[in-house]
């Protein structure tokens, strides 16, 4: 494809994303490329790079365009991105829309006038950040997260916001059912993929550069699974051991279930539950590849008596709760555009309900691990503290002890009694986890 054709395809992709604003962008992008199989790998990367830089910078680009009263169409967003952030001057941006077969139509008279106005409005400012921008936009964050992020990060807010703009590394987890971390690293190295051990998770390997690992034999044979180190730490802290009875209550496609199965060496029983059939279905192939055969799946349905019948039976209950996902924004830059204050309120209600149900499943002396991939205290500490207020039979289990028992490396990333990881401090996605123990009987 010519550069102009790639640019035209990036505009089409952005239009496709705009048409489904509540859907995760990577799902829409997958459909977009599946319907255009003729687009090769190099072209796809270039198209993604341009479209994703627009998505990543969308709040700032909107600010610039609103200032000149320009509607943020995909064409104008791309033109503005190239001009303000892409290192092109006005003439080069205009030339990027040459028209003709497969290329984007030339900018209309109005579009060109707006682009010239945009260029003039920079008045010497380089890049996308303007001193007159409101703080949230300067930080590339939606306004509604600022109170929560200020409470979480304090003076480190700008540093954390900047880290959320960086591309996330690719982390893998060695599957202990089939290998060790060292052997997995050697297998990957034999296929030309260099990794280094992750600093906190004893199972993790980090790639210095993104590579297509899912095509390696190490991956297809189940020696490794793709999983952010922070996510590995949640499974680690659950401290599931061989022979235990464990529930992964919000298992999704089994990301953490797989790690729990590894820690349990396939001995004992894990029940992976979720309310979403397609997500649970997504677990099947992964469980098979990993050789995890102590896992049963259970689809939770309204009026389901499954939980009632199993009250007080589990050694470990993991609640990897549905959340706003603010901790994963470096990985899903579109999520900050899709999520809002109402989502936060609804999710908090849901989290409290799920936690209440989860508590009943824990045996006396057993542990409930509550985790989110959000760094908003409303979804984290506030949720746990409200739960503890309603459940005097539960108390926080000492984090350092849970960490040491489970084999975590060094000291756990913590804030008070809870595990908290963040992109700037730990190089992982942002995760929160609380380990709560139910009082032993008697
Ligand atoms: C953060 S995701 C789980 C990710 C998964 N544990 C992993 O590691 O890949 C939260 C999951 O909670 C599920 N969920 C939502 N409401 C639920 C409920 N009431 N009970 C159980 N699961 C629920 C969602 O379908 C979603 O799969």
From TrEMBL:
Keywords: Methyltransferase, RNA-binding, S-adenosyl-L-methionine, Transferase. Residues 160-439 form the SAM-dependent MTase RsmB/NOP-type domain. The active site is at 373 (nucleophile). It comes from the Bacteria. GO terms for biological process: methylation. It holds the Pfam family Methyltr_RsmB-F. Belongs to the class I-like SAM-binding methyltransferase superfamily. RsmB/NOP family. It comes from Belnapia arida. This is RsmB/NOP family class I SAM-dependent RNA methyltransferase. S-adenosyl-L-methionine binds at residues 274, 320. PANTHER family: NOP2 YEAST -RELATED NOL1/NOP2/FMU SUN DOMAIN-CONTAINING, RIBOSOMAL RNA SMALL SUBUNIT METHYLTRANSFERASE B-RELATED. The keyword Nucleus does not apply. InterPro entries: MeTrfase_RsmB-F_NOP2_cat, MeTrfase_RsmB-F_NOP2_dom, RCMT, RsmB-like_ferredoxin, RsmB/NOL1/NOP2-like_CS, SAM-dependent_MTases_sf.
